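Narrative of activities, Objective 1.

The group set out to show that a structural description can be obtained from nothing but a protein's sequence at a throughput compatible with the screening campaign. Below is one input-output pair from the validation batch, recorded exactly as produced.
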Amino acid sequence: YGVGEQITKKKFSDGDEEGVVCSEVANNANIGGAMLPSLVLGIPGSAPTAAFLAALSLHGIVVGPMIAHEQPGFLGFIYGCLIVANIGMYVCAFALIKPSVKVFSLPREVLLPIVLLFCVVGAFAEKMAMFDVYLMMGFGVLGFIMRKTGFPVAPMVLGVILANMFDNNLRRGALLLEGESVVDVLMGRPIAMILVVVVAATFIHGLIPRKFKDPKDLVGKIDTE
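Output recorded for this entry:
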């Protein structure tokens, strides 16, 4: 979006077609970037890639630095699918743009019950159990409360998807330690130590109040004083 403003040398306003195109191009372009750490390091770059990793684990595909050797051709297949998907999206966008406008113009009173119906059917079809339906509704209520109270939903979704993967790898790592200290192991592996530091710094950065992050706010506060 920012690059688009620099190239066109104008400030986009609400509803500007060029601004919409720029934002959608960026939205589609980040998929490839999010897939890279997901496949090579096993670290999801976004919520969709986290769901993608969960699907791969169900099929017994372990992602990581050795994926190119253990699954030869898999990376090329994935990125080939992305290219085909983008071409398909281009074709479908032109074919379905008018029907989509009519669907999205439906009032919420009509659209939301249809969406809820599909959610219930999908949850029940997984294991043919009503418990899954109740669980889906419970998480739906929780997500609604989180949105109303200002809590982000994406971290919770990532936690639910990655919890099993995290637990399995934690157990595997504990077995590989064979009585060694975690600190000693990390000190002997610089890459792992760097990743731990980055994660810790990101976590601490999120705890810092905004007024200490933005220098403009600090300057404005000094000026007012």
